[in-house]
Amino acid sequence: MKHRAIATLGASALVLTSSLVGIALMTGTTAFAGRPIDGANEKAAATSAAQARKALAEAKPFVAIGFAEAAVQHAPQNQSYRALLGQAYLLSGRFASARDAFGDALALSPNDGRSALSFALAQIANGDWTGARQTLDAHAETIAVADRALAIALAGDPASAVELLTPAARAPGADAKTRQNLALSLALAGRWPEARSVAAVDLAPNELDKRMVDWAVFARPAGAADQVAALLKVIPVQDAGQPVALALNARVAPQPVAVAAAEPAPAAPVEVAAAPVTEAPRPAIVFGPRQEVVQPLPPVAAKPVRVAVKPVAAKVAVAKPVPAAPKVMAVAATVPVAAPAKGKFYLQLGAFESAAVAQDGWKRAVRRFPVFAGQQPSGMTFKTSAGNFYRLSVGGFSRADAVAMCQSYRNHGGSCFVREAAGDHNASWSGAPKAAVKQVASR
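The structure corresponding to this sequence follows.
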């Protein structure tokens, strides 16, 4: 996604998810863990933290980083300072560092829902969708449903987000943010007519058209960090992660830092610290660990093999019969895999400029994930203000099978999300559906 698209979306989407940013982190109570620190370090840490909060309030997250790092270095066991540092990283587009900082904050205070939500966002931005969903599930009781559900949608499961948000949006006293998060989750699930209908409750007609265009761009990210960056109105930067010396388990004595702790830093160094960010390259997508599942081979009765042996003039020593080897196959064999259960759920693989481009995308998907070779691709043309697009999907599965197949495809480096049927039909280039039983290599 280009930077222009990110900036355009941010103005309309961030207001819907303001608590995802976690402004409350700057006003929360102080939390400690471990041994207390001496008075001098405690005072220096508090002063640096106050300056970091001030910089964040003035929309200067890159300035806030230096002060927040100083606070953590002076008081490494203070959970609120680590959460403050994570917030500064997150609002600077340093998503790897934000993940590390919020992870340390959660280690100190496991029941902090704000840090858990921000940690999940950082995981999503780093391409760890599975880890993000696990984080959101583990902290379901401490994260507001409107925020948690939208984060689940961003983590690749918009169908579950819709299930969570639908009753919340219909409940008495439901606010606009909940309804709009539901509308966005419906859009990410490919249910655009319903998304438009829900969004229209709180938007004027001219605003509604713009929102749909923004969401059409938002639903087609080019990288793992694009959607989170769009919501936060930031540009992702290349990030190696939080400094090792600041890690929670690092046993490093507090050292003097570049930013003075007792008094505000001069204006000139502040501007220099923020300058390199404008041209920072985008981070590479990091996918979750590959998890291959090898299906055990069914027992097959061995067929007798008859070999014709001709007499040989020379004397040949005949070897004694060799005992049968253990049932371990050293060569690949093909085994049948049961067809997925039928249902109304689909894996959406992408939205392309035309059916021809989508066909090339399908061929690449099959090469990456041979299981798709036994499935019938589906396609559908849809129109937006940004142009006409051809949506590529595969499905007609039960929800459990669709989610499992999508996860397996992601483990092979692919990108997909699960949604309900939305007018899908056989792709224009495909013929009759292939058999649902397919052959895969097993070893």
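The chain has two domains: 3-279, 336-442.
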